[in-house]
């Protein structure tokens, strides 16, 4: 089998890789069990206007594992995408988030709030994605113009024409779109203006870098300018300190999100933000 590690340390069977593969297989099995067991839940992070009023929330998936406690999405979403389990999970997220949106419509304190939902490329590029969203809206009775779907740059550059078509069909009923983690991917300026986008969410790495030496501040300024030129609102992600808030306010961001305003919360703890 594997050669004893020689002078060159060449070994065909990499034990570290083998361990990763089996850990992944175990995670996949565990996720199937969790899905059936209803261990997934949504938390909601408040999104604020730059002057500190609640504008809406972003739905964020959580896995309450019986042994491991809360498992963060970075650990399980990639696996869910590789195994297509994200299709089921993503549909559940939409249904859950739109259900809340629909309940919000009955209360004047919450009726104008927006719900942002993250969409995986695996979900979006399915041929029936548009029908799925329309179906969820119909079933829950949520107002389409209060729903915002967050897409990543890499999702947008794959099959641009097909992407534009899907976005336009949902735009027609009022659904809006944001680019998530903007600046970290490979958006091309040549088609960004062709996509029916309403918001750029500046990745938190640029907000954090802005206080340091280097180009963070210049990049934030550039993205705000770009968003405004293209008629989009601009949201700063990951604002943790008053200094960062002062900075993004100075730069003209319209919205912000981050631990300074609020961490993601379970639904029953959102009420303190309503007024
Ligand atoms: P994202 O969409 O960029 O979501 C923002 C992430 O930043 C969240 O992490 C949030 O908790 C975190 N965050 C917000 N403010 C701050 C801050 O001030 N400081 C720091 N350090 N972090 C902050 P979370 O919940 O762990 O989610 C990570 C990523 O997982 C999300 O990034 C999104 O890409 C993905 N994700 C979460 N829920 C879903 C989902 O329902 N579907 C899909 N497809 N992806 C999801
Ligand atoms: Mg997001
Ligand atoms: Mg983001
Ligand atoms: Mg992010």
From TrEMBL:
Transmembrane segments: none annotated. GO terms for molecular function: cyclic-guanylate-specific phosphodiesterase activity. It comes from the Bacteria. Residues 24-275 form the EAL domain. One of its GO terms (biological process) is cellular response to nitric oxide. This is EAL domain-containing protein. It comes from Duganella flavida. The chain holds residues 282 to 556 of 556 of the full protein.
């Amino acid at each position: 089998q594997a050669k004893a590690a020689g002078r060159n340390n060449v070994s065909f069977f990499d034990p570290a890789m083998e361990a990763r593969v089996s850990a992944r297989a175990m995670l996949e099995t565990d996720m199937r069990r969790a899905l059936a067991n209803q261990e997934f839940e949504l938390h909601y992070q408040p999104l604020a206007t730059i002057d500190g009023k609640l504008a809406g929330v972003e739905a964020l998936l959580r896995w309450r594992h019986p042994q491991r406690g809360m498992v963060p999405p970075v650990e399980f979403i990639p696996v869910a995408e590789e195994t297509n389990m994200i299709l089921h999970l993503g549909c559940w997220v939409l249904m859950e988030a739109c259900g809340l949106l629909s309940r919000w419509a009955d209360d004047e304190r919450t009726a104008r709030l927006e719900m942002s939902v993250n969409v995986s490329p695996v979900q979006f590029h399915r041929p029936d994605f548009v029908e799925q969203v329309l179906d969820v809206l119909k079933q829950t009775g949520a107002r389409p113009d209060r729903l915002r779907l967050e897409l990543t740059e890499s999702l947008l550059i794959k099959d641009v024409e097909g992407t534009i078509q899907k976005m336009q069909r949902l735009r027609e009923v009022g659904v809006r779109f944001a680019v998530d983690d903007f600046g970290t991917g490979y958006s091309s300026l040549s088609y960004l203006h062709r996509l029916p986008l309403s918001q750029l969410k500046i990745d938190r790495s640029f907000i954090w870098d802005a206080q340091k030496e280097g180009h963070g501040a210049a990049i934030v300024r550039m993205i705000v300018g770009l968003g405004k030129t293209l008629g989009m609102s601009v949201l700063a992600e990951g604002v943790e300190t008053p200094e960062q808030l002062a900075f993004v306010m100075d730069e003209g961001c319209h919205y912000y999100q981050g631990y300074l305003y609020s961490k993601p919360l379970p639904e029953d703890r959102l009420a303190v933000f309503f007024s």
